[in-house]
């Protein structure tokens, strides 16, 4: 498991043996997207613009840690390997580096947003039982989160998986599409029913809403021209029901496709999104 530090100019990177962190300093823990099967946390990969841009627009955090969780491959690293790595990365920030759980902001885009939700759920459900597991992080930032890996939102031509397929680079999520391939690889040896597990698809319409009680305050971003829009709206409604309107902030990028922040040409939407996320971090 590799870790990559992103820092603002003048800020020091942190590693084993680094100086103690401030009691008030926040840090971003970043999980990259890529359908659990592609891309990387290495700073040279464009998807990391998500955390780089947000870091520019927050005054309470000067560092971010990008986690190189294991990618699923045919026959290896299937669910729940990525959750195991996410927990290890979070424990590293809290137990080794010294950040308080409430000062850790977990940011994830697409599949990384799915992983951020899974980490939060695991901490909520088990941190009181497992002494080595930190309390839940202080906040979540979900950029176009992949929150329903099933086809439960593909109900007809008016739903976003169909209606927005032409305006989104990820296309219609058919079994033969890149999304469909990622689903099969992520499942691994499990039956496809695992996709409706709350750790995998908390926005699935075919299951009762899983509890979000105890989850951190959350910032959710999505584009109204993206394929995943309907599932993200379901996630938003479910989280607001359990957490309250005041703890779930939503930013809708108009006429915008999936996960727009890494696309440097897509202005002003990408910068507006990063600014809104930065303000959310600094607001508490």
Helix and strand topology:
Layout (H helix, E strand, L loop, with lengths): L1 E6 L18 E6 L17 H8 L4 E8 L12 H17 L6 E6 L1 H16 L12 E5 L16 H4 L14 H10 L29 E7 L5 H15 L4 E6 L15 H14 L2
Parallel strand pairs: 2-3, 2-4, 4-5, 5-6, 6-7
Antiparallel strand pairs: 1-3
Q: Which features would summarize this protein structure in a list?
A:
7 helices, 7 strands, single chain, seven-stranded mixed β-sheet, 284 residues
Structure, described:
The two termini are 31 Å apart. 30% of the residues lie in helices and 15% in strands. The longest helix is centred in the N-terminal third of the chain and has 17 residues, at 81-97. It has 284 residues and is α/β, with parallel strands linked by helices. A seven-stranded mixed sheet has the order 1-3-2-4-5-6-7, with helices on both faces. It contains seven helices and seven strands; from the N terminus they run ββαβαβαβααβαβα. It has helices at residues 49-56, 81-97, 111-126, 160-163, 178-187, 229-243, 269-282, and strands at 2-7, 26-31, 61-68, 104-109, 139-143, 217-223, 248-253. β2, α1 (49-56) and β3 form a beta-alpha-beta unit. The chain is globular and about 55 Å long.
Structural shape:
globular
| Quaternary | single chain
Distance between the termini: 31 Å
Strand order of the largest sheet: 1-3-2-4-5-6-7
Can I get a quick summary?
The protein has 284 residues and is of the alpha/beta class. Helix content is 30%, strand content 15%.
């Amino acid at each position: 498991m590799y870790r990559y530090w992103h820092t603002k100019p003048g800020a020091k990177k942190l590693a084993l043996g680094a100086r103690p962190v401030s009691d008030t300093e926040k840090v971003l823990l970043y999980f990259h997207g890529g359908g659990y099967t592609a891309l990387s946390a290495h700073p040279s990969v464009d998807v990391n613009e998500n955390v780089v841009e947000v870091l520019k627009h927050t005054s309470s955090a000067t560092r971010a840690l990008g986690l190189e969780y294991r990618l699923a491959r045919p026959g290896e690293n299937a669910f729940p390997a990525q959750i195991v790595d996410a927990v290890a990365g979070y424990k590293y920030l809290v137990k080794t580096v010294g950040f308080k759980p409430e000062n850790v902001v977990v940011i994830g885009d697409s599949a990384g947003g799915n992983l951020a939700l899974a980490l939060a759920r695991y901490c909520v459900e088990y941190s009181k039982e497992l002494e080595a597991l930190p309390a839940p992080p202080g906040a979540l930032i979900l950029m176009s989160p992949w929150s329903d890996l099933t086809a439960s939102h593909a109900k007809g031509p008016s739903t976003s998986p169909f209606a927005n397929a032409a305006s989104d680079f990820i296309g219609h999520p058919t079994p033969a599409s890149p999304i469909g391939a990622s689903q099969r690889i992520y499942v691994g040896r499990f039956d496809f029913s695992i996709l409706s597990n709350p750790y995998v698809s908390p926005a699935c319409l075919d299951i009762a809403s899983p509890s979000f009680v105890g989850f951190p305050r959350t910032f959710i971003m999505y584009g109204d021209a993206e394929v995943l829009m309907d599932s993200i709206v379901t996630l938003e409604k479910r989280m607001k029901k359990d957490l309250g309107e005041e703890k779930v902030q939503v930013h809708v990028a108009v006429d915008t496709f999936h996960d727009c922040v890494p696309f440097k040409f897509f202005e002003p939407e990408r910068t507006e999104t990063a600014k809104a996320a930065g303000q959310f971090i600094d607001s508490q």
